[in-house]
Amino acid sequence: MMVIGSEGSASGSEGRTIVARATPPGRSALAIVRLSGPATREVLGAVVGPGPAAGLQARRPRLLVVFDRLGRGIDRALITLFPAPASYTGEDLAEISLHGAPAVVEEVVRVCLEAGASPAEPGEFTLKALEAGKIDLAQAEAVADLVEAVSVEQAHVATRQLGGEVSRALRPLAEEVLGLVVDVEASLDFAEEESALADPGQAAAERCRDLAERLAMVARRSESACRIREGARVVLVGPPNAGKSSLFNRLAGFERVLVCSEPGTTRDLIEEVIVLEGLPVVLVDAAGIGASDSLAERAGMERALGAARAAALVLRVFDPSASDQAGEPPPAPEGVAEILVGTHADRPWLSPAPESALAVSSLTGEGIEALRREVARRLQAPGVASPESVALATERHRRLAMEAHGHLLAAAEVLDSAAVTEVAAAELRAALGAFEEILGAVGPEDLLGRIFSRFCIGK
To answer: I need a surface site. Which of 104, 302, 353, 380 has the fewest CB within 10 A?
Structure first.
């Protein structure tokens, strides 16, 4: 058994009883301290006294006095005990809900540490739940997503993942791949006995292609959830001094970007996450597009065009009020939606704007809300409010699913072109390994380290 520290390192945790504050630091009305491990009851005895600790009943909160290291009462707290194995971690677990005075919370943690508990690593409570079989790896990742959610829609996606939707969608496919592996490897062991393999050759290839298509369908059905989880990228492009940075600040709600009349001020990509009608949006300000002799400015323009190619939506920003405006911004890359935005609506426009252009003023706010609504409307793909599937909403899951997809198609190609071979079996084993890595049936320490390093202490 192992735990993953903040640097992704593994350390032995068998028999460890851990403690951590489970609520954010700082003054608050209430705070929660969590304990988990075989010595939970003994550690609680140091906090509330051996007698009261022994009298705690499963899942029945009890109001008790908590003591400092000198044995003085410092608060009255609600103590709840969750005995093993019916707890979040599968071990004896306790929650101490007390008033949120930082000094009191810190003292309770110190009492627990002096009584034999160890400080919890980031995500260690959830890692214990994973190791105890209470949740799978996809559900563990959903815990972190739920804590980090910045919109109700993101919380909805994470809650569905936490409820096991990923496993329900992918485990049947994984089991069918396992069945194929068994059949193909059986045929290798009994090559001279055709009856040993129910679906030899072409039939096995068809099964591979069918599984690949069903996996691709799950990925397509998860596109809305992916957009909700990661945020749709909206990139502002336009000539220098078209008002992109001012518009970016107005949409972000604060002065995120330096605004200057000197051309070329913005050279790198600047991002800010905003929420439009419940949909997280990654707003990107980029360098102005135009002629320049500066190597740095040209490099910035290349980054701007690259960001536009990867965007879900491009805002083509231009300034019709400027007499020296260097033309309209370049069109959005093929396949990327766009909105034409004319800035400085508070000034007379010296050139006519296309009918499709939205007029805005970053100074007065004119047209800003209309632009927000239009951006949200363009990004609201069918089903975005309630995604059809959340099975492949994370980048890690999609990457592994595409690996499995590729291995299945490769196995089908081998089975089409030759008799059942070890190559086909290897491709199918690789596909199965990708499924297992999504679901946590395999969990190398470096993988767990990357996943759990983003957890907060106490979760």
So the answer is: 302
Sequence-separated (6 or more) residues with CB below 8 Å from residue 71: none
Residues 6 or more apart whose CB falls under 8 angstroms from that of 404 comprise 177, 215, 430, 431, 432, 434, 435
DSSP letter at 31 equals E
Question: What pTM, to 2 d.p., does this model score?
Answer: 0.74
**Average of per-residue pLDDT values in the chain:** 83
Looking up tokens 């009255």 gives 76
Nearest alpha carbon to residue 278 among 181, 173, 407, 372: 372
* Whole-number pLDDT of residue 195: 47
214: domain CATH number is 1.20.120.430
Q: What is the pLDDT of residues 373-389, one digit of tens each?
A: 999 888 874 444 578 88
Residue 276: which H helix or E strand, with range?
Answer: strand 270-276
Query: Which of 117, 136, 155 is the last residue in one of the domains?
Result: 136
Render 325-382 in DSSP notation, one character per residue: ---SPPPPPTT-EEEEEE--TTS--SS---TTPEE--TTT-TTHHHHHHHHHHHH--T
How far from the centroid of its chain's Cα atoms is residue 134's Cα?
Answer: 21
Per-residue pLDDT of 367-376, as tens digits, reads 999 999 999 8
> What residues make up the domain containing 22?
2-136
Domain assignment of residue 95, yes or no:
yes
Q: Render the burial of 53-68: b for 16+ CB within 10 Å, e for the rest.
A: beebeeeeeeebebbb
Structure confidence at residue 36 as a pLDDT band (50, 70, 90): very high
Residues 216 and 240 both lie in one domain: no
More confident residue, 52 or 196: 52
Q: Measure the CA–CA gap between 4 and 12, rounded to whole angstroms.
A: 9
